[in-house]
Amino acid sequence: MHHFDLVHMIISSLVHGLIYASVFKLFHHLSLAGAILAAAFGVAAVWLAAKLLQRRG
What pLDDT tens digit does each residue of the chain (57 aa) get? Predict the structure, then answer.
């Protein structure tokens, strides 16, 4: 394994850990219905962004 691959893997895991921790903190205080609603809006936002970027490219 190259050194760059190892560094990339370590940094990537740290960034993912920070993202998951912040998402957990946001969702921790929501009810189940609120979490489902937030997840649905998140998926819709990503889908819409992908569609808009696909038209541009």
Answer: 567 788 899 999 999 999 999 988 988 888 999 989 988 999 999 999 999 999 876
Total tally of structural domains belonging to the chain: 1
- Per the listing, tokens 């394994």 go with 1
Tell me how many degrees the CA angle 4-50-15 measures, rounded to the nearest 5: 35
Distance CA 6, CA 11 (A): 9
Domain of residue 19, residue span: 3-56
H, E, C per residue of the chain = CCHHHHHHHHHHHHHHHHHHHHHHHHHHCCCHHHHHHHHHHHHHHHHHHHHHHHHHC
